[in-house]
């Protein structure tokens, strides 16, 4: 079996999976949030299927982070809707919920991994406490159990256990990012939003972190929306891509199709790396 065959069978598996699961996890319709003309995101339509990793790519300023903030309910759109399949029989309109209900979703069923890890961590709480806090938010009150899970997750993200009581501010950037990931994943969220999760790190640290993220995504069967301007990151993690330019989607497709045979002239430029960086 060639590498190409492996890629193809992976893509087929994703397609088959999406056909069998009748309901998309997210259904995004005409989502628009503009700060100025063409600044933000507009008329965004797509579906995210359970177990899918969707990459949002495009040059800096194309609206990727704005779209992610609206998708994850952290910013209210000007118009449009996000339907979230909350269980087999029920979907909710994200912006039909109250703000406190949206926050509850973010604390329980969803996760957000910020580019700058300290945006997603509590600086005055120990590493173990940062992980434990998320468990308490979903109702876990058993101290021994919380501590045990914190220890388990520090191990999973390769943070030395003797750092459990240290403040995250004393950690390296890569270690902070791994802690942020542990804090998000400890509650086994269904859906995780990531904004340039490897963006601020040295190249050598990035490669290891990407590998870790990829393994966790597969092991936990996570559904992920990941924003990145780095097509190598998109290639490694995403099943499917959305390409954004000046607030709009200009191309979507399976990752290998988009990157190996881009159709839109802007995607062709991106792939030829003229617009990267
Ligand atoms: N809170 C905001 N207020 C005003 N303009 C904003 C705000 N957030 C983003 N923008 C503008 O919207 C455009 C898209 O930004 P952003 O979504 O951060 O793009 P990307 O993540 O693709 O780099 C940029 O021109 C940016 O300056
Ligand atoms: Mg951004």
Description:
- The protein is of the alpha/beta class.
- The chain has a domain at 125-188.
- The chain contains ten helices and ten strands.
- It has helices spanning 3-20, 64-71, 99-108, 127-137, 143-156, 173-185, 203-220, 231-237, 255-260, 265-271, and strands at 26-36, 39-48, 53-57, 79-87, 90-93, 110-113, 191-195, 223-227, 240-245, 248-254.
- A six-stranded mixed β-sheet has the order 6-7-8-3-9-10, sandwiched between helices. Strands 2-1-4-5 form a four-stranded antiparallel β-sheet, covered by helices on one side.
- α6 (173-185) packs parallel to α7.
- It starts with a helix and ends in a 6-residue tail after the last helix.
- The relative contact order is 0.16.
- The mean pLDDT is 92.
Query: Within the largest sheet, what's the order of strands?
Result: 6-7-8-3-9-10
Query: Largest sheet at a glance?
Result: 6 strands, mixed
Cofactors and ligands: adenosine-5'-diphosphate, magnesium ion
Name the helicity range.
40-55%
User: What is the approximate shape?
Assistant: globular
Structural class: alpha/beta
What share of the residues does DSSP label as strand, in percent?
A: 15-25%
The number of helical runs is 10
First-residue to last-residue Cα separation: 35 Å
Question: Could you list the spans in which at least 5 consecutive residues all have pLDDT below 50?
Answer: none
Q: What's the total number of strands?
A: 10
Report the radius of gyration as a whole number of Å: 19 Å
